[in-house]
């Protein structure tokens, strides 16, 4: 099938490459010429596992091309996926839908016959009618254009896997047995035929599924982090608590990892955007709990700063602090709302000399936080430090031998913000090991 993907960020570039992998003839469109050039050269403009390989394979096979031209996109196909960004607005909690509306506004006058527009971006419920209004105003073929919603649930660092082997497909349509449904089912036939649960629903429900899913995931993380606060007050161990809870299949272990909390380009802005939309709809009470979910999440960052101060004998001024991790989670170079960098910046503001290390995210981090020091190698970064903070759980950090490292720092003190280092190993190597939600000393 011929199709286009408008917007080639984390979502769009992954979707475009994955659709080519399914055998379709794909044209990705993005207004950033540098990004288009990279993508046409088979290179992702960001780090995502396996994406470079897929891009290289399918730009070479001719099934995948990228352009900065809306005219070319409109001419290429009559199935258009919208995967542009929907960031938090600069002035409040609501979404900034500017990129979605611009994409539709640009495409609309260039659509002259029957077409299907499929939204994948995360949007507040009630966005489709606004898109339909834009089509009516700007497209000569508005009566022949259908809008469908097909939310994307991919996790960064598993984006390709989640796109090609999703745990479900959700599709929302304006009516029964529409052409949009036929096209979308055809587009995903390999995935659907593999037995993937496929939920077909109305447009509002399809829009809402994504908001509800991310609200649930954020709530689960903040729940376990609230338990960490209680553990800190009682001397209990949140890691063991999480394990004990997770064996109950109604609760489940996934997404129940305590630590520094959630960040990234989705969960934080999605719960805020969801609350803002509920307010507009007069349903603010229904989502009041999300304010607490957000607050618990932010308190983990504050707690980390308090713990760091405590470990630095009450003052951060002039202390050398090394942070392992800049990305908002491992296996990505995405630093949007990164808990690690938030803590790094706050410590810097409190007078500490902060050095940050990360396997993939330093280039972007350097540009955004020029006030911090950055060193690629985690051992070199820790040289002469007064305190080490482990804030993003890259697998390689668990492999580092704490024994020789203890001789290279000024004070062998570590705070494990993700609870993935082995406390016994670090304590046996002479370190003072502290972790969020865990006891200060080993169980006797
Ligand atoms: C998330 C959703 O998982 C995905 O379905 C949606 O499409 C987009 O938002 P993503 O932001 O890539 O995906 O990351 P995710 O793996 O969910 O992690 C989000 C944040 O929560 C990270 O900062 C991570 O470190 C944190 N997290 C996750 C926890 O602190 N504990 C957990 O148990 C899980």
Question: Could you give a quick summary of the protein structure above?
Answer:
This protein has helices spanning 10-21, 33-40, 51-61, 70-76, 98-107, 127-138, 159-164, 179-187, 189-193, 203-234, 238-246, 267-280, 288-311, 339-349, 362-368, 378-382, 395-399, 402-406, 423-428; strands spanning 2-6, 25-29, 64-67, 79-82, 115-119, 145-149, 169-173, 198-202, 320-324, 353-357, 373-374, 387-390, 413-416, 432-435.
Overall description:
With 444 residues, the protein is an alpha/beta fold. It has two domains: 2-196, NAD(P)-binding Rossmann-like Domain (Rossmann fold, 3-Layer(aba) Sandwich), CATH 3.40.50; 203-444, NAD(P)-binding Rossmann-like Domain (Rossmann fold), CATH 3.40.50. The protein is built from 19 helices and 14 strands. The strands form three sheets. Strands 3-2-1-4-5-6 form a six-stranded parallel β-sheet, sandwiched between helices. A six-stranded parallel β-sheet has the order 11-10-9-12-13-14. Helix 5 packs parallel to helix 6 (127-138) and helix 13 packs across helix 14 (339-349). The longest helix has 32 residues, at 203-234. The mean pLDDT is 97. The structure holds uridine-5'-diphosphate-xylopyranose. Uridine-5'-diphosphate-xylopyranose (UDX) binds next to helix 10. The site of uridine-5'-diphosphate-xylopyranose (UDX) has 19 residues, from helix 10.
